[in-house]
User: Fold this.
Amino acid sequence: MPTIGDQHIVRSFDEELKRLHDALARMGGLTEQQLKGAIEALEHRDSDLATRIMNDDVRVDDCESFVNEQTVRLLALRAPVADDLRAVIATLKAAGDLERIADHAANAAKRSLVLNQMPPVAPMRSLVRMGRLVQALLAEVLDAYLTHDAEKALAVRSRDQEVDDLYSSLFREILTYMMEDPRTITAGTHLMFIAKNIERIGDHATNIAEMTYFLVTGRKLNDQRPKRDTSALEGAEQE
Amino acid sequence: MPTIGDQHIVRSFDEELKRLHDALARMGGLTEQQLKGAIEALEHRDSDLATRIMNDDVRVDDCESFVNEQTVRLLALRAPVADDLRAVIATLKAAGDLERIADHAANAAKRSLVLNQMPPVAPMRSLVRMGRLVQALLAEVLDAYLTHDAEKALAVRSRDQEVDDLYSSLFREILTYMMEDPRTITAGTHLMFIAKNIERIGDHATNIAEMTYFLVTGRKLNDQRPKRDTSALEGAEQE
Assistant:
């Protein structure tokens, strides 16, 4: 076992893996809180909360850095193979998805600050509903990941279609709203970008679901995702 | 040196690293082509080209998978340290950024298909100009990365502010355009999402610039980026 550059290799590989697992669990919890806070900030027009969410994004980034460093260290010093290698890679990937999720949540919070300077707009209700759905999916998929529950992961994956359907209908709702009252165009564009942030969070939750399946079964889900992203075509359907 | 699971360890570490470098160079070239094609498809309303760009995104994904697999293999089997470890990690990160860049280019191409079904809109000219700037920055940063030119990388990084300024002015231009003629709202929202794609490509080019600096000098750029993203606040400035 190489020890170059590290004087503290006294832990077993399983202990190291457990530490990595715990770091990811903590990162998942933080990310859930960030998403929850971002949606609450939108719903209640709470600029203080939105600012807190923006500032706390760095905590999730720090978690990811820790996971990345530990992963590289484990790969380089322990040279894991088979199941162990899969567990390390899955953690690295899941951490990347969580970081992106938190980033989208922080972006949504940032835009809510702008929206709070304008009169409320009706489609916000649908946006918050979509946010709550994605929040529930994230909770489910984290649970599936941390308990190695492949069935539950597949269930989350199959529900991403609901998110996409909500996104499509929300996109049309916002467009209609802007067309009927052009004074709402600026607010409408921000709502659209937030909706896109939330839709992307759903995609990252799906990534984690697929990673969970791979982690537990050793097989990649090579069939197509149950859905294709058609969001860019909403405008066309609209015409 | 462990050889478990691999019967072909005859190459030297330097040869392996060279292979990884070449794979990244090829991935960089493909990604540049994808971005160039996406911008041309927008400018010339060329739906055939846009479709080709969307379909070819998988080639960039394949490159990233190859780089990822090779990186994990190198880390696990060769346990590199110091400069070698840095080179492997830098390649992994740069490949991730290139994959995201190609993804944004494919998204832009997808939206151009929708725009081609609508009458042309004036702000497209500014969008294409912004696209060309980002295209130039990507070419520069790839050159800096592949030739290990830290100075050139810093120069690219400092120019990301130009992209953000163009994005801000474009965002205002599109908003004004939509407000003056609400029939352009649908096209305008697609332009905004494409502008966001291009702005994000600029961010990823900046990431590669920072990674290049780290690769060459061993030091991280820990000062703040020359700019902060204020795009979400454009709407507020607009009010």
Q: What stands out?
A: Chain A has one domain: 13-238. The radius of gyration of chain A is 20 Å.
